[in-house]
Amino acid sequence: MDGETAVELAKLGSTLLFLGVPQYTLIGIDTQMVSVGPAFKGIKMIPPGPHFVYYSSSTRDGNDFSPITGFFVHPGTSQVVVRKWDEQEERLVKLPEEEEERYCQAVRNWEFDRHLGPYNLSQYGDWKRLSNYITKSTIERIEPIGGEITVASESALHKYTPKTVKENALDEQLKASRFSTPSDTSHARGCYYTSIPHVIKQRGIDGQQLTSMNLDKTQLLESVLLEDYGGSEDMLLGELQFAFIAFLMGQSLEAFLQWKSLVSLLFGCTEAPFRTRSQLFVKFIKVIYYQLKHALKKDCTDSSGASALVDDSWFSADNFLHHLFKEFFLLLQDASVVDGDLLSWTRKLKALLESNFGWEFQQNSAVDGLYFEEDDEFTPVVETLDDQVRVKPQ
């Protein structure tokens, strides 16, 4: 870009000023990561809005790294965020207010400009699709005390959580040698994620109703939306995105488990996608589509292993996602009325899973992107009417 445009972006964009960060430390923002050089002091030209900053300290030879620590920020236009490296704790810390303001003014006076790397705006579109439901209130509601998210403070989770093959694999990766640098996180506390019940228990109803409620999580979804999100679908999707980012980029096991809980809740609904919450599911499928598309990018992996948690176990047909997707695709196939956008995005998601994961959900004839048995006398007829696809039994 020309000099005039660069100056304007530097003025309007936000700035992250990092003081005293050792060489070879890995520092990332959103989908971008760099290895710190001797002159590095931060990042400029950052678009206003939500961002995830994460870092991993290195040994002197740059061959081994500590657990990743990350935090969300939501800077406004021309805002400067300042952090200083604490050598003893090997982490970025906030400065006293007066000292921070002096550094902010120095940034505005261009005193640090030659030490600031530009935010790669060509990757901003990808980040927006991963974070478009995250607001400042989302961050304030969920982030832990102090704001830092790190697997090093989640040791208690390892005792209780791994139950599936995927979770055991994830647990082992989080304890691998690259994360061997010790960290004192006794003061740390996890994120304030919404509690999602795995099983519905309710007094005063008979066994048949209780079984029905556990087979179709629509009623649970409505309850969670009302009681925990004030009826806001976008708040739920914001937490889904928050958890995914903290998991994929921050390598948080707690975040993975929350992401899994929310995904399982939504895919566990059999009525909501087609009647009460069709537009929520259109947005949800789009969110999942872009999350998996980004996670599977070949150039997403870097020296920190930022996407190492998406490994071969994700491609297994025994993966919990495979079962959820398979049931949802069958549900969509059997539905009497399907929103046109929901069908379109589900087809895109299905194609992504088949091409990137190599999953085969069914190998039969296709009707508008969904598979049916060729010789099934009950094969539905699909009619496209305006914005909806109506499926009728023959």
TrEMBL record:
CDD domains: Aar2_C, Aar2_N. Residues 13-144 form the AAR2 N-terminal domain. Pfam families: AAR2, AAR2_1st. InterPro entries: AAR2, AAR2_C, AAR2_C_sf, Aar2_N, AAR2_N_sf. GO terms for biological process: spliceosomal tri-snRNP complex assembly. Residues 193-362 form the AAR2 C-terminal domain. Gene3D superfamilies: 2.60.34.20, Aar2, C-terminal domain-like. Belongs to the AAR2 family. This is Protein AAR2 homolog. It comes from Rubus argutus (Southern blackberry).
